[in-house]
Amino acid sequence: MTKDRLAILVFGATGRQGGSVVRALLRAHWPVRALVRDAAAAKAIALRDAGADLIEASFADVGAVRAAMTDVHGVFSVLPGTLAEAEEVAAGIMIANLAAESGVAHFVYSSGASAGEAPTGVARFDAKPRIEAHVLNLPLTATIVRPMIFMEMLVTPVFGLGQGRYTFFLRPEQAMQLIAVEDIGKFVAAVFADRTRFAGKTLKLAGDSVTGRELEAIFTQAAGRPIAYARFSDAVLAANPDLGHLAASLDNGPLADHVDLDLMRRINPEILSFRSWLAGSGRQAFEAALSGRSA
After folding, report:
1. How far apart are CA 226 and CA 16, in angstroms?
2. Please, how many CA atoms are within 13 Å of residue 264, restricted to the half-sphere of its CB?
3. At what angle are helices 212-223 and 283-290 packed, to 10 degrees?
């Protein structure tokens, strides 16, 4: 089947989302071109060994990016969270424009579920709706995916697991939806496999729904010792733009929307719950957080 298909070009291939997409596409027998900054880096070599063709280029290498889109079926675009807002918008627009110019059959842009129409003052949130709007105005068959909160985000040491507690921006009885990064790749592979169904769609992605109290129970069971849950104080949320925006988005914003999990399972039957992720691929990061280390 691979020989009969044109390739899919994946941006951010050595990052979490891009790497997940590369693995899922290879598993689904798509030829993959992985755009990397350094083809000699360990993560890039791992992609090559898995079967991806490496394309070494940066966003500044417009000619190289254009060449990488020659004779591809699709493009998956995700941008680093470290870019300034103007840089992210410029890179996102450049990639989409080149895809339209190159006649790419299907363009998939990974935005974020916390992105909304109202500016937040947080660059990594505000850049995404600007790129989305540009993509949807191009003569291009496109799908936008908006992953909900990453499960990986929850098991970082900053939230206090190493001290036998867990402090987060979620109210104790409030529900939020989560997605394992590895599931993002599976969803994107399903999107590329059914261009007609997903053309022009904006799709929020989630795998589970949990409350603050449920996090307390899940972490306590997984740790084998009590992990008390509490919400950050209003003063802490006001002082931290990222956390404050996420809390506000859950209260009355984009993250307050709840994805139909039954629909998610129909698209991706292998979807992971937070419990199953924590017991499997998330276990190492969880244990590192319990010891106060980064995974």
Report:
1. 30
2. 25
3. 90
